[in-house]
Amino acid sequence: MNYSQVTSCICIPKAILLQPKTNWTSSKPGNERRAGHWTHVPRNVNMEGLRSGYLFPEISIREHEHIQKNPNARLIRLGIGDTTQPIPDIITTAMAEHADALSTTRGYRGYGAEQGNMELRMAIAETLYRGTGVKGNEIFVSDGAQCDISRLQMLLGSNVKVAVQDPSFPAYIDTSVIVGQSGKLEDKTGKYSDIVYMNCGAENNFFPDLSTTPRTDIIFFCSPNNPTGSAASWQQLEQLVDFAKRNGSIIVYDSAYAAYISDESPRSIFEIPGAKEVAIEISSFSKFAGFTGVRLGWTVVPEELKYSNGFPVIEDFNRIVCTCFNGASNIVQAGGLACLSRDGYQAVCNVVDYYKENAKILVEAFASLGLKVYGGKNAPYVWVHFPGMSSWNVFNEILEKTHVVTVPGRGFGPGGEEYIRVSAFSHRENMMEASLRMKKLFR
Amino acid sequence: MNYSQVTSCICIPKAILLQPKTNWTSSKPGNERRAGHWTHVPRNVNMEGLRSGYLFPEISIREHEHIQKNPNARLIRLGIGDTTQPIPDIITTAMAEHADALSTTRGYRGYGAEQGNMELRMAIAETLYRGTGVKGNEIFVSDGAQCDISRLQMLLGSNVKVAVQDPSFPAYIDTSVIVGQSGKLEDKTGKYSDIVYMNCGAENNFFPDLSTTPRTDIIFFCSPNNPTGSAASWQQLEQLVDFAKRNGSIIVYDSAYAAYISDESPRSIFEIPGAKEVAIEISSFSKFAGFTGVRLGWTVVPEELKYSNGFPVIEDFNRIVCTCFNGASNIVQAGGLACLSRDGYQAVCNVVDYYKENAKILVEAFASLGLKVYGGKNAPYVWVHFPGMSSWNVFNEILEKTHVVTVPGRGFGPGGEEYIRVSAFSHRENMMEASLRMKKLFR
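^ Those are the sequences you sent over. The predicted structure of the assembly is below.
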């Protein structure tokens, strides 16, 4: 695979671009001729430590090959969790009006606060954190959760020890590798030597056994979980906060899927008393309001959270935000504010309900085949167990025989083996059709 | 100063929030009561190395104090370079239409490519890099130059040696400190021990003496320069590229003000033959199209640029962009594309011309007072010399006697002493009024 071909071809799914080219020294003849000059700048050793066979690119390659082999097949993509439903027009109208106003003397705005417009920060606090004690000035508006994960890693630096759920969303580990926290990738286990992997499988109800979990500085914890779809209960989060407090750890809590919670599970770590002393929360408008391409998120850093020397974490995070970021787009922030208005909030909840109904259809389809199915109730992801089987083999079989793209659980870490993740982000007719195909394949 | 008061008060200029609170252990009584729990997570030593008395916060504090003392004065802010003129409606309409379309099944878009829409990448290549050999796939669209500087620093890591112009835009050094490249701040010189400061003053025509400049891995170089307003000539940039090539260095070229060039100076480092083997270019729509609050920029990483082991830098940067970023807002990218249409480009150039006329007014005002004035011709900043005087004293005198906010040159590094920077980003009437007040003060 040739890098320049990949990046200049817009028809190939974006994720393919993630993959470093392994045969880079022997590629294009044209490049070789020009490649006479090498600088003396050393490649960052941390970058060398990143896995070369990354999950989503590998899926995209297989998807691409499948399309080549089956040009007439109607592919259904339930792999990457990408929203598909239109944004309610009360929200798009707010953004369009803000954009239009920028052409007027009265409506023009230059730089905003790096931390976000205070009106939006207050609205997030009042709408999504009511009763938790989280205040507007503790909310930092961003261009998305993934971006904030890397800014948090810049904040923390290389000298902290990190734990992640296994399986987990790859960005926690990858950014950990980039800033130099991870140690080496061990071929045998598929794990980085200095990262603690907290197994979260069906056997422990997708919640780590904290009695055997070693102390780390940082605990990345995603609930509702990507990929397992499991939401931690109030009691489980209480245990987690207690564990962090006893160990002097900081929980980095990812609540990007909180809007999908249907039961009594907390939607924020800050519903747990004492969490403000031990946790940071990262969240997003992406899956909550269909803002995957619009880009808006936020991070909560409580004033109570202190480093080991008593210095408030919020002050360093504020400095990072002001130095490494320059605020989310003012047009997009106007949309975020509209999402939190009474009518806007109702409208986005209706879209979330649509995806939740999709998830229900997937759960029923797989369950009807006698398979163990997890997730889907509190999350837009369904996590299906194929005991004793390789998740890549299951992925391949489903792709080949049904033309449905899923994600092999192994891609989220060793703990995802034997599982596949199926996304509920799609149009309803795709969901029905995919369910039918699955039933034909596995019946 | 109390952090929570600052961040919850939107009337205080944003930059004030940059300043770490120095007396944080003895602040709010309420906080002290709650501050029972300190985690055991060490504060990142790099964050401790950041200057506490940062430029813009200090200015904001003085501005704030001045307003308190002079509540009836009409303050004119020519400090922070923030655009003030409306965005041409051909561009805002494109953004509004894109936003509106997101509420339709046909127009909805989820995740885009992390690198940006290929149509926009191609348009940047064709409009702004014609004839340089820069291709669309070498352009990475971002949410702004400042954000890309920090992503580049994540890419480079702690094990590189860095040179900056002195004076220079503070973000290069601050991000260098955050990733651990800088060494310690030396009180005596005001310089970080491991950073090379390349003096750029009137005596060397604002271009460093490369014959005495030690080799570094990275050379941050901003042209047209912020703060001096000086644009490097073709011959100077040819020298710089040659210097980088001989030393095996990488130039990180910041061309955020390229649209302001009036003479024959290159608008991109890639106009210089051979630059693709030694340079990365960071640029922005902020000052070019009034997108300071809208947020859009780009970085060019040529395929020819290689690390010391021959590995292409573009592949690692691509990985960083895909892991630490998730693409610029699709609404905003639609605006960027409109800026590069024939009519859009003409419209934004007209706004640039407006600010250039402002700069001319400033240059004439200061020159008429017998002061040495630099910049203004190829940049929206005017750099005024007050020989033998402290730049902070000049700043204070101007503020107190004319109610005009400028920036003391010392804030951009030791090499900025004796100078002030005056921004041309303002309404015309402010420019005229500020000129009048200066003439009264210094005549």
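The first strand of chain A starts at residue 76 and ends at 77. Chain A has a mean pLDDT of 92.

Shout if you want it in another format.
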